[in-house]
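QUALITY CONTROL LOG
STEP: pairwise intake check
CHECKER ROLE: data steward
CRITERIA: each record must contain a sequence immediately followed by its structure tokens, with no blank fields

ENTRY 1 OF 2
RESULT FIELD BELOW
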Amino acid sequence: MGKYFSDVVEQAVADIYYCYDNTRAKAAEAALTLAAEQGDGDACYFLSRCFSGKEYHWEYHPFQENDRKAYELLCKGVRLGSDVAVLGALRRNMLILALREEMPFSSLEEAWRSVYWKAANGCLFCQRKAALALSFLLLFGSLAGCGGKEDAAGADGPANTYTPPVNDDGYIVVTMPITLSGGNTAEELEAQHQELIAGMSQEEIAKLYWTNIIANEDGSFQYIFTPEQFQRIKETSYMSGKLIDAATNTFPAEFIKAAEYADIDKNGIPWALAVSVDKKQYESSELINSFYVTVSPSIYMGMYQIFCGVPGDEWAAHVTVKDADSGEVLSEHDFPDRDE
């Protein structure tokens, strides 16, 4: 067994991503195929990347693009418990609810922490995967509600009733600034969404958070919603801004003890958040945990503000992190950094 994956997978990763020899790449594909057939979830994931197109490997490797095979293998990897497959599916917006329920991980956080451990211990592939997946988790709301234990008793819902106008085609169009792209480019978001909805029916698309994503030349991007999708994402962003899963009423991690909006204007729009944490647990992995309770909710707060009609260049969030026992302020953060 290799340090991060099986021996077969580790050799294949080396031959595909850190070597320009096509003979070794084809041998790696054959080895991954056999390992995938034998139930190696990680092999399924890396084999799916071979079939996913040139953006997923060295462009001159002799792999044949096959979207159906890629999707089937990705799903199989998730079901077999591959942590990188889970994050890969999430990153590509393919981790639909039905597939998420089939993964053996108790939460998305568990899968992300597994990849993060490998990254922290020297896995070059996982170092990039963890960073990319975190930005996607923060953007699409997947850390909030990924299996936390703490109950968010008394959590209130959004009070703002603003809804943008519906266009002649029956959709609501909302423009998001580049500061809310979660580290992705607008073009990447558009491409990921197009890949997701390829072959879907209109009924299936209507069950997603949005119908379409369109990249703008200035780096911003447009969400295209049905009125029903808009109301869903507006409520989700409000609750996720408080680190709460609206379905389970829980926080995403045990170290989070409370989270409340500290500044809500007359229109019901929040501008600040106070998060109480278990100081010892929080500081045991402060770099990761700080992302959970500062960057993540600030993105959701910004999204909610824009859904309430705030212009894209005016969204703002102030996050204060406190020790739940003593009330000591551990850190304060303002988003976005308008000096960038």
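ENTRY 2 OF 2
RESULT FIELD BELOW
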Amino acid sequence: MRPAAHRTGPAGGRLDPIGRAFPIAPPRSEGEDRSGLSAGLRLAISDTIDLPELMPRRQGPDRGENPAMKSDRRSPIERMARIAMLLGVAHLTLAGALPAQDTKQDQEQEAPPAARPRGVPQIRGGQGDNPQADAEEAPPGGLRLPPENPPGEIAAGPAADPLGPAAMPADAARPPVARPADPNMPIVPQWPFRYELTIASFDGAPLAVRYYPSQLGSTAPVVLLVHDLGPGRSSQDFDAAVADLENQGIATHLQQLDYAVLAVDLRGHGQSPARSRGSVGNPLLRWIGDLQAAYRFLLDRHNRRELNLAKFAVVALGDGANLAAHWATAPGGAVSIEGRTSDLAAMVLISPRPTLNDRPIEPAVTALAPRLPILLQAGAGDAERSALADALRPTIERQRLSRVTLTETRLPATNLLRFAPEATTPLIEFLDTTVKVRADEWEPRYNLDPVVYTNVRVTNLNDEAEAEAQPAAAPRPPQPPAEANEADGPGRSS
């Protein structure tokens, strides 16, 4: 098929093969090229079709025909396909040439890296003293670098530890350990020691806690001590002398066995006021929130590698045992973040009641028994609590490490642990075989809720024992309560 010739149109223009007129490009000076294409690309296009905008007109002897077109034996479809391909290459070449030119200009105007500030994009002020800075615009999209010296100094690592010594002086310059006669002098922790401080519960209510750190650090097992509920009960019950432990408190004894220990004053007990905020009117729910706040404190110490929450146990007395069981079965109890399982590895329930605030303990224990080892301990002479222990025995002892123990005494809860002969032996053995021997490696936990500490005080336990000692009198073992007071009254435990 013979290609159609270019014909002359009106006003000096030319007609394309289908009769459409387009103007002839004006003459250019020698060497001028306004097409933006390379010479090789223009030659390739000119071999396919005569484009007057790209090359001078070439006329042949036969009525202006292009000799290249005359000798081209390709079909129109093949020529059009080649034209489309070459136009696409031209488009890509133009698109790539513009950013390259802009980049070259930016490199010429860019300051040396050492003199370039790492500031955030500035907001236009319009009437500022520095018009050049006011006219600076933020780069489109992407992350913004923080300023080199931001206000308030962005932290480069974890927050400062409220329990860590701030700028502790050298050993030779350290002040002496404080004595009761000189309470204003700073106290340097000397092993063994404990922290007494205040944390905030879920609703902001202050909770007094006692924290006994371990020397094992990130491999240390940890025990949360929950006292009985009622007048006169507090975390100090775990510092009271225990006959079986050579008049040591259970908290101090566990610390010497390399456990990290936390004892909390539930609201309305000890040094924790009874105030509450929000719409939570059920005291049981408020106490459950207090236990979760104590767990959050342990979570913070875990992330500081002071203990290992994979070796976490709870020891609870009396009504506090009922409370601990309900907390462990509540959604989110002892759970660091949604999606994880509970960190509880074992529970010790000493003299729980059948019900607390009209909520029975049996469903909670039934739910916990398949999940973790449980030690339930009660006095054989306490009819109500020993009957509960016998009723729960088949459920609890299905787990290989769980067991129910009855001690030959009528004493309940706190007094059972302090005065009953060999009452602490099954407790210590149970903790050693369920949490202390666990081989779980330390791993960080997410803690999205900040833990705030106030009223931090350090007590060196050896100095406390020396201050309480009476040199003139021989130490006197603790005495159990009178026989008339052994049994509990209605709604009260000791």
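INTAKE CHECK: passed for both entries
DESCRIPTIVE NOTE, ENTRY 2: The two ends are 113 Å apart (CA to CA).
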